[in-house]
Design goal:
Elements (H helix, E strand, L loop, with lengths): L2 H9 L8 H19 L12 H9 L6 H13 L10 H12 L7 H19 L3 H19 L6 H32 L2 H9 L5 H8 L3 H12 L15 H20 L4 H5 L14 H14 L14 H18 L15 H17 L23 H11 L2 E3 L5 E3 L4 H10 L4 H36 L5 H7 L62 H13 L3 H15 L8 H19 L5 H5 L7 H14 L9 H13 L5 H17 L1 H6 L1 H11 L3 H15 L10 H22 L9 H24 L5 H14 L9 H13 L12 H6 L10 E7 L2 E7 L5 E8 L2 E8 L17 H8 L1 H6 L7 E2 L7 E2 L15 H9 L13 E2 L4 H12 L4 E10 L6 H5 L6 H10 L1 E4 L21 E6 L3 E6 L14 H7 L4 E6 L17 E7 L28 E8 L13 E4 L3 H23 L4 H4 L4 H14 L1
Parallel strand pairs: 10-13, 10-14, 14-15
Antiparallel strand pairs: 1-2, 3-4, 3-9, 4-5, 5-6, 7-8, 11-12, 12-13, 15-16, 16-17
Helix pairs in contact: 3-4, 4-6, 5-6, 5-7, 6-8, 7-8, 8-11, 8-15, 10-16, 11-15, 11-16, 15-16, 15-17, 16-17, 17-22, 18-22, 21-23, 22-25, 23-25, 23-26, 25-27, 26-27, 27-30, 29-31, 30-31, 30-32, 31-32, 31-33, 32-34, 32-43, 33-34, 34-45, 39-45, 41-43
Keywords: GTPase activation
Protein name: Rap-GAP domain-containing protein
GO biological process, one term: negative regulation of TOR signaling
Amino acid sequence: MGYRNWLNRKSSEGAKSSILLPLFEAVIHQLPKSIAHLHPSTSTSPAYFHPRYIDLLLKLGSHLDEEDAGIVIDYYQRECLCLPFTSGWTENIWKLVRAFFLSLSPLEVARKRVAKLLFTDIAGFAQDMPEYRVELVDKVLVPFLQEYLVTTQDDGFQKDALAVLVNAAVAETLERDEERREIRAQSAASANAEEDASPEASREVTEATFAGSFNAIRALIAEVAHIPCKEESAGGIPMSASMAESGSANSLSRSVSGKAKEPSLRTLKGTISPPVRSTQLPSISSISGAGATTDEQASPVPAIHQHHADCRSIQAVLSLISIFTKLCFTPSFHNTTNTKAVRMPASFRSIIIFRDLLGLLYPMTDDRTRHTNTPAQVKMAARCPRARIIILEWLMRLRADNHHRIFVRRNIDDAALPFAAMLRRTKDTEAEGRAAEADESRRRSRPSQQARAQEEDRGRASRSQESSTRSRSRSKAAPIVRGVDHTYNPLWILPQEELFEVPRSEQPSEIMTTYNPSHPALQDPTAKPIDGVWLPVSQYVRVLNGILRGHDWELVSYVLCFLPLQLRNKLFFHGRRAVTEVRALVRVLAEGVLGVDGSWEKRYNVPTFIKRVDINAIAYQSLSILIAYRGTMARDECDQLVQAFADGLQGRKDLAKPCLQALTLCIFELEQYVGRHLLTIIDRMERIVTTTALAIHILEFLIALGHNGSLYRNFTDEQYRRVFHIAIDYITIHNARSDEPIDLSKSREDYTLSQHVIGLAYYSIYIWFLALKLPQRPNLVPEITRKLLQGRSKRVMVDEMAEVCFDWLSRYTYGNADPRPATSFLSEAVMKDSRESEVPKSVSWLLGGAILTITAHARSGWATITSTRPTGSTSVVLKLENVPLLELGETNADLISLPAFLMANREVIAKAGGSAVSFDASSLHGFIWSGATPSQRRKDVVIHPSYLGLQLLSSYPNQSLETPRGRLVPPEEKFQRALRGIQNTPVIDTVKIAVLYVAPGQTTETEILGNIDGSPLYLDFLSGIGRLIKLKGQVDVFVGGLNRDTDSDGEYAYAWWDDFDQVIFHTPTMMPNHPDQPGYDGKKRLVGNDFVKIVYNESGKDFAFDTIRTAWNFVNVVVTPLTLGEGTIIPEVYTPPSEDGWTDWDREEWFKVDIQRAPGIPEFGPLGEGKLVSRHALPILVRQLAHLGNDLAARFMHIRDASDAESAEYISSWRSRLRAMSRLREM
């Protein structure tokens, strides 16, 4: 029995014994002097105490006060009794641990000092000495913490202890890793190769992995993660204010009661006369005061978004993440030897930690991925819900590079903000969520209150006739309100701080990969599953599927917001088992949006202000990325995916928009499945063309569909009508809105979008009309014309867009001729008669909506007739047969026609053996062309263009107002100048687009412009974006400022054209670098003036929008290859996955494509926040995006600089020609 117990017992006997108390304590404190006399010491320090006295105090450890405990601790520190070079140092540590931790000692200050001594001084000293560190961990730290760590309430102690355990686990692993490397360096190469090729770990690797204290440490940390959460009730609901106050009060009362019962020498000394003590000991009052203020200042209510900030489960989770990060991303241990292996203790243990984290996040009931040589996975989730969110945050940031090496993506919250905003998970939208929750609660409570009032009225009225029991039996219970939570406090809000440890940079791990398609075991179908080599991504995806099938809305909402970002990193999900789980993920999401298993908003019990359409809108973001995984899916799964998108075509923008974008992408990637649902898609689109924000995506879908004739080759006239109705319906809606006054001061961006969309509507009409077969076109022209007339704008007398459309329809109803004539060899030859001293004369007439121009030779009879209309020009070269043909040998013989016909028909003549032309030698005047009549040779004929005009345009004698008549354009200069202006206004728009290649590591403008070559994948992309043209002497194709006289801008360029546009691609890699231009001014002159820039980015970093410094930075289409173009091009044809054999399931190249827009340019295109595009679809899709972006940028710049609404309206070249023709007619 200790002396303090004796003192306590004596003090309870009465006043007589109180005289002995001070005497006994005085004796105890005089012992150091007595022991010093009996056992002299050479120390002269006044604070010196004899070891036997220290041993005596340790034996009384549970009865000491802070001052006495300080004497013991000071002695152990001063004498270095706990350091490794002291004999019995581990036992000395245990003496302190037993005295102050494993006893009933309540001395907080002493415990903190011992903890600092153990975790900082001793552990720090032994860290770099493996032998001592192992002894410390095995004999002290692990046994001690197994007994104490889970039960302690000291958060500071727990953090320090976990940090020491993390360092111990990492240090031990790295040492064993290096030992294995040294062993492999001494082994034969064949033995190492055999070990690497094995699907299972060798005995040596297994022993190295599971030996030591690593498993005991991870088990201890996992046990801490299972400690009940401080701020979590048994049901997992965040602690309310009343609960927090109650908890704080109880904690405070326990603290006070604990201090009142503290049995210490100092406590007794306060009640009796104390003896004289040394002034070297600390004041207990200061210690007690510091401890008292902690509880008094504690806030009873946790701050918003700070729930569970001090939960021990969180610290345990962060410790496991720290172990994984240090093992995978610590580079130092890779430098000692050059021998690398696919399976090492560090990678093996990282996988074990990864599985532990998955178990703490969402334990699966059956572990299908576990093998006999791996330890059991954690089977119970972390008790703190915030800890589970942290695990999910970390997992969602994992990525894989083109070599399948993992890395951690930092600062991704900004990319997820648009998704989180839909679920009220941002700082800006959270207040809206709380207000919506309160409004919903009040709204739902009103009917129940009214029902209770009605019930009370019925009860009072029937109380005299019915018994009270019967009346009560008819009363109705208040309805159950789904998801009402009056203490709504979400566990995560964006943006938020990353609590877990991440590498300083996004450098990939050298030891951890997600897949290796070249692994030898993959070539053997009978081989066992490979374990311990790659990160078990399949298990991770399986956990995600479990979360989505579960009920935890906090986890589900986080997965839905961040999953699209991770799915874009397609290389992270390679491998057979991962593919299986990805297919399951597709089914889970598709069935969720389709409601196969009922409404998942009820399953998740979401807040009432979150609706099913909100969840579906987020889920569609992931489904649209999963289009890129089509190579892993079966036919029915691909069909279900397209069906899910078609089902989302509803009136709400947030829901319909991602579905429209995904369906547009499916035209390129899932063509045959879109064809199956095409009629349903068109039917749904007819119902939702109401807002501009949706109309742009609907029209983009129609345009993309119109370019793919195989999808609608079996359309009937009625089905074509429905397509035209969609476009015309929006035109009608736009015209109705434009009849209202336009206020540019509110939003020029909205007006820009409106102008762009009306242009897309007419463009879709043109695309689909050209898709019709010629016999079908006359049948649909009346329908299109009638609908356009019905929807014409009432604001203006003449709807110019409709008039231009009518003119265009008249051009293409009966033919597909080009919109502008090309200069042929025949025209060049016959219209330049050397006999004529004057150039051919031209006369023009205004005839209806056209200008008819006739150019004729005076003598040869050759003429051209050109019809100039708003949407194009038609030119005919003709020979007037009324003019005699003067043969060879005659005076003024026609020396032009014969050579021209010979050249024009040279192929026919050559096939006939040169017998197509014969001559009559009997002529008196020389050789003549056989078949010429004498009358044609005796007459000198002169023709004026008016002769042809009169013959073609005159209706004499039947002239009336109903008869078309031409009006001569006077030959005066002002009329001719106006006519030239019309003819020089292009009918085909010209577009300039830059194509930039960013090589690995490049970030600056000079580096990018200086590239003269690119990777194989870049060159492959470039060859598909357009047609290669030669620049020198080029006259038929628009070159956008490229030099056509010399090769100063390169010999070749890529261009693309159709009936509407000519596009030239300014490609710096095809332009030479000039020594006198260190800043590549020539390239910058061309690229800098382009509105749209296609950026093929292989830099490995995000491309900054303003990298190319220019005033015309409007749109960037950034293409990032998921596999860098370092090797050969993979063929487009890939082998779908089979159930029997398996090598590498995905042999197709994929690219991430993003659109960067300048402020003020509306969103456009099917990419949304970024999509994955296959190699065969990439050039076509990117070209269409660049084309749309250029049109939008042109309208944006025009509207930005406009001073009023009238001048802000964008006028196309066709409308400019129409207006000029109208002005000419009025002159």
